[in-house]
Specification:
The protein is α+β, with helices and mostly antiparallel strands. It contains 7 helices and 14 strands. The strands form 3 sheets. Strands 4-3-5-6-7 form a 5-stranded mixed beta sheet, with helices on one face. Strands 12-11-10-13-14 form a 5-stranded antiparallel beta sheet.
Length: about 290
């Protein structure tokens, strides 16, 4: 039997979402971020960039893959002349346009007009070797040599203090951005979740699997009221807020993985103010193109 402290610890691990959907054999070995902790991070050691609200894209030198290892059906012109070396980045349609990016990537038959609105924001060269301090100019030079306006190098900067970092976060979010990323300059590219890479957002987030659709009442009668979801470690909770009218009419299917956001946890490790955010970026249900 677990004691109360062990049970709370287990629940906390579930909330953090250390695992998720099963990965394919081609899933890239990605560097994943932990959450930034004020006061515990030597900011002088880190580079800071915007956290782009798109879908993780990994160019393995031949194919463009999702975080889960699924081949992305990009138009031939989009990846034409890309180098035979891995590039890690984000497929991004602009601030506040995650749904547009996701819809474009999900198409089995790529639509040129939709793809022309996407940019591949390159933020690392996994096979380059050397510390991130050296990989920054390497990926910037590589992107510049491609001469493709839809392939862009992510800008990195330094901040002097947590107050400056928080001010940059507020400025970024006010302008429509999702948050910030912090990357340790001396770090090598490691396929692990590590403090060498951290994310900073106004909300925390985690992933869970849709178990059931709970019917709505009152103004939501006849459509979705809430999702019953389960985290990778078995914690079940209801998400009843955060949905658009369209999402209540057409909710994520049972079995889909979704991202929810929250503000901290209770003393039992339960997420506070949890609300639905979106279908998880690497749970991509392919949508056929008509015609």
């Amino acid at each position: 039997m677990l004691n109360r402290r062990q049970f709370a610890s287990l629940i906390s691990l579930a909330v953090l979402g250390t695992t998720g959907p099963a990965r394919g054999a081609d899933a890239p070995a990605l560097m994943l971020a932990n959450v930034y902790r004020p006061g515990a991070t030597p900011l002088a050691d880190y580079w800071v960039s915007e956290k782009y609200d798109g879908l993780r894209g990994y160019w393995d030198g031949q194919r463009l893959l999702t975080r889960g290892g699924e081949a992305i059906a990009a138009p031939a012109w989009f990846t034409d002349a890309w180098p035979a070396v891995p590039m890690d980045g984000e497929l991004w349609a602009g601030r506040g346009r995650f749904s547009q990016a996701a819809s474009t990537v999900r198409q089995q038959k790529p639509m040129d007009d939709a793809w022309r609105a996407l940019r591949f924001m390159v933020f690392d060269l996994p096979a380059q070797g050397g510390p991130f301090d050296e990989r920054i100019p390497a990926y910037q030079q590589l992107v510049a040599s491609l001469g493709r306006p839809w392939v862009q190098a992510v800008v990195q900067r330094k901040v002097a203090s947590d107050a400056e970092l928080q001010a940059l976060l507020r400025q970024t979010v006010k302008a429509g951005g999702e948050g910030l990323m912090l990357h340790r300059g001396t770090s090598l590219y490691r396929a692990a979740r590590t403090d060498d890479l951290m994310k900073l957002k106004p909300w925390e987030d985690a992933e869970a699997k849709v178990i059931a659709h709970l019917p709505g009442q009152g103004k939501h009668a006849g459509r979705l009221g809430a999702l019953l979801v389960e985290t990778p470690q078995g914690l079940r909770l209801k998400l009843g807020t955060g949905f658009t009218d369209t999402e209540r009419e057409h909710p994520p299917p049972v079995g889909a993985w979704i991202t929810f956001r929250f503000r901290g946890t209770t003393n039992r490790g339960i997420p506070r103010f949890a609300s639905y955010l979106r279908v998880r970026e690497d749970w991509v249900e392919k949508v056929p193109t008509s015609g």
